């Protein structure tokens, strides 16, 4: 009981200290000890979201996009040690679950000039990224400039660089769809 009261008090203090710093911060969100936050003014955290420890979230327009936004939808749970970096737009839908050590980004370092260190070549904007409602992203997954459909699963250690449709299971590096839900037969089928 005491721990529950302490957690509630801690959440309220976080909300009151940070509510004006974020684009939107729900008082019903639980944001644990973050590693780092950049561009709070471009980040929306909806009701019931839980962001677990040592996660780095950012929404900074490094590619001169006209708008930059990171939105984490209602009821989503972001695991420990996640790294989510938007330079354009990343929308994480409702009730999305990410395991630990997940990387999600809508950008890449440029590397075209072989005579210059990559760290000095700037950032390349990739398409805006959406993770559909109800999806599950496994441990150590990297999602780079690709969207995930609703109620889809991305298996552990996968690297997603191309869009994954709704109701699919994708695995591998690069990730490929191995199962898809057939709405007519109402069964998961191998692809």
Protein model, in words:
The protein has a single domain (2-190), classed as Hexapeptide repeat proteins (UDP N-Acetylglucosamine Acyltransferase, domain 1), CATH 2.160.10.10. Helices cover 9% and strands 37% of the residues. A hairpin with a 2-residue loop joins β20 and β21 (175-182). The protein is built from 1 helix and 22 strands. Strands 3-6-9-12-17-19 form a 6-stranded parallel beta sheet, with no helix packed on it. A 6-stranded mixed beta sheet has the order 11-16-18-20-21-22, with no helix packed on it. A 5-stranded parallel beta sheet has the order 1-4-7-10-15, with no helix packed on it. It has 191 residues and is mainly beta.
List keywords for this structure.
single chain; 191 residues; mainly beta; UDP N-Acetylglucosamine Acyltransferase, domain 1; six-stranded parallel beta sheet; six-stranded mixed beta sheet; 22 strands
List the helices and strands and how they pair.
Blueprint: H1 2-18, E1 24-25, E2 30-31, E3 36-38, E4 43-45, E5 50-51, E6 56-59, E7 69-72, E8 77-78, E9 83-86, E10 89-92, E11 97-98, E12 103-105, E13 107-109, E14 123-125, E15 129-131, E16 136-137, E17 142-144, E18 153-154, E19 159-160, E20 168-172, E21 175-182, E22 187-190
Parallel strand pairs: 1-4, 2-5, 3-6, 4-7, 5-8, 6-9, 7-10, 9-12, 10-15, 11-16, 12-17, 16-18, 17-19, 18-20
Antiparallel strand pairs: 13-14, 20-21, 21-22
